[in-house]
Amino acid sequence: MPGRPPQLDSLRRLVRRFGGFRWRWSVLHGLALAVLALPGSLLVWFLLDWALKLPPWPLVILFAVAAVGGLAAAIVWGVPPLFRRVKVEREALVIESLDQSAGESPGGGLDNQLIGSLQLGEEVARAAGRPLAYSPEFVSILLDQTAARFENLDPRSLLDLRRTKRLLLPAAAVIATTVLLVIFAGGAIQDRVSRLCDAYEAVLDTLFPVELRVRPGDVAIVRGRPVELAVEAVGARRREIVLHRTDLKGENPAATPLPLKNGAAAFTVDPTVDSFSYEFEYGGRRSKPHRVLVDDLPEINAINFELAPPSYTGQPPRTLTGRLPKVAGLAGTTVLVSFGATTDLHPELCYVQWADGSKQVLSISGRFAHFGFTLSKPDRATIHLTGALGPGFEMAEPVAFDLAVVQDQPPTVKLAIKNRRLTLFEDAAAAFLLNYTAEDDFAVAEVNLEYKIDTVDPLLGRSPREGGVPRRIEPARDLVKGRFADMFKALDPPLEPGDRITITLTAKDNNTETGPGAGRSPPVEIVVVRPDLAGFVEQQFGFGGAALLGGLQKVKRT
Prior knowledge:
By secondary structure, the chain is an alpha+beta fold. It is built from eleven helices and 26 strands.
């Protein structure tokens, strides 16, 4: 049988068509499995997170399982069919195996008839007239029988496509759902992507923690000034960090996303108006909360000076209101300075500085303060205030005032006598009467009459004598009027001619602080004479010296 048997090419085309048909369905089967493995797994992950809001670790783990496992399954199931080539001999064996398993072909199973026909026909075609071990006519008859057998048999009908068709339906549903989600739920997809990125970074943050360094931490700021809130995220992998602020009552929260540049971010509050707390959030983890306390610089808005004069004055306390450049009072006056500030004051950093540099701590109660002192010398007081928030809240301009000490004037003494140089006989001098008036701005407590008796000439040989007559004024009065009489009647020895009496009246006030103050009257001089020497006394206010008295003798008068 020369040449190529015509039935051979017909059978080969038949088998090749079957192979192409089976390859297409195997590709569809693999693609269906790949779609269910990869997009299906991802779709299940998407729907789970959409419905349950999975925590970071389950979210990342499930995504990794869905992505890696699905991709591996898709490669295993979907890629090999694409690279499989149709081979006639293999497809012939598949047809025979399918026909044998079906057991419904006319005349019984093929039982290697198809593969044998193809192989023997190829050998005959390659022999090209060379002798063969078998008869070419036999091969031709076999090919005719095989071709006739396939005239009523479609090998494609032997394939069981039910499993593939069952897989194609859910695969098509997965593809349709994915397309619908992309078209109508793009935001949800973007949200899942963002959540996955955040969850992945949260997992990394858990494995490799990020350290948040916040500055300035807890700080106090003068109202109206700016404050910069900064953070350094050591080891940060994210591109953003969130600043959370809220007032100290936990109200009016504000979240401000900040870009991270080289792991750092900053935000300036300008101006600061009210106190607030703040913290930074990175990957769901927050830094330690800190506070920014805002207050004004303290200023004195009301000040009072309560002056209590010394008790000896008998005067009641008096109050002066407002800022005074100078406070004046008697020595010993107690001064209480009280004032109110515009803000609460620091209990330890407020003080009064005196002219010598010494400091006196203030008594503080909230925004009110007071201090006291006693006037003793000229001085200067400077009030320094610091707000309750401490250093940095010192008052802009300290308040200062001067202290002046007013001296208590001593009493004045007036004598009711015109002539302060008198010549009197012994009896008149002994019964001398002296009226006086003593006056003080507060009170006269004591009046003393002091006298000194000497002689007009030392030749009389008399020793000087001194004495006084004290008189206590109870109760002390501002104005005292009185008299001293018969002061020298009880002298021993009594007054004699030639005696000279010097009288001084002293008045003392009741100043118990710097005194008592004493006021003196001008001296009054009295010369005691006999009637026969009165002329000399009147002319010389003395006896004129020892020469004039040398020849005199005492002569008793009859």
